[in-house]
Specification:
Layout (H helix, E strand, L loop, with lengths): L8 H15 L6 H8 L3 H8 L2 H25 L4 H13 L1 H4 L5 H9 L4 H27 L9 H18 L6 H16 L1
Helix pairs in contact: 1-2, 1-4, 4-5, 5-8, 5-10, 7-8, 8-9, 9-10
């Protein structure tokens, strides 16, 4: 009979996610993970596999976290413009005061060119986000809240790239006022 686990997998996975998010894949050692997660090295391997497999699971954990936070925030928006403003605010304010940018963007810039699996995960996340943004923009166009001068898909590509840039800036000491000016400019573009 095997021993029962002495830890909550979701809790320790979230700790690993935060460490990868904060430090990146390369800088995070197995010793760092063992210490942060509070598990034995053997338990880490038995439960999550190797470091790369754990990293991919951490990305999945991150995707769910962000999706849940965005859906919760957007569900309270009375207008599509408020929903998009919420997304900008969430990106600019640093994911609940975590100034680490975005784990997907960080992973893509660190690893996508040399790690096919990470590259595919990042690309899929970016495509899914663009589709989600296109749906939001299309909804705003249908209700008359946004201009129909531009195609919703084209606007979603521009919005996605604007958000990617903001997520990179969020990792730096960039002025939040600058990021809010960028957000405001995009929202004005939707209104023309």
């Amino acid at each position: 009979m095997g021993r029962s686990k002495e830890f909550d997998e979701n809790v320790v996975l979230q700790k690993a996610m935060e460490l990868f998010w904060e430090q990146g894949y390369e800088k995070t050692s197995l010793s760092d993970l063992v210490e942060r997660m509070g598990v034995h090295r053997r338990s880490l391997y038995d439960t999550f596999g190797d470091k790369h497999t754990l990293f991919l699971k951490a990305i999945g954990c991150y995707e769910k976290l962000i999706k849940d936070k965005l859906q919760a925030g957007i569900s309270h928006a009375e207008t599509t413009k408020q929903a998009i403003q919420f997304i900008f605010d969430y990106m600019i304010e640093g994911y609940g005061n975590k100034p680490w940018g975005c784990l997907i963007v960080n992973s893509a810039t660190e690893m996508a060119l040399r790690d096919e699996e990470v590259g595919k995960r990042a690309e899929a996340a970016f495509i899914q986000t663009e589709q989600f943004l296109a749906d939001l923009i299309r909804k705003g166009q249908q209700t008359g809240e946004f201009s129909c001068d531009y195609d919703a898909e084209a606007l979603s590509e521009v919005l996605q790239n604007t958000l990617l840039g903001i997520r990179v800036l969020a990792r730096t000491s960039a002025d939040k006022e600058k990021m809010y000016r960028i957000a405001h400019f995009f929202l004005e573009l939707l209104n023309k």
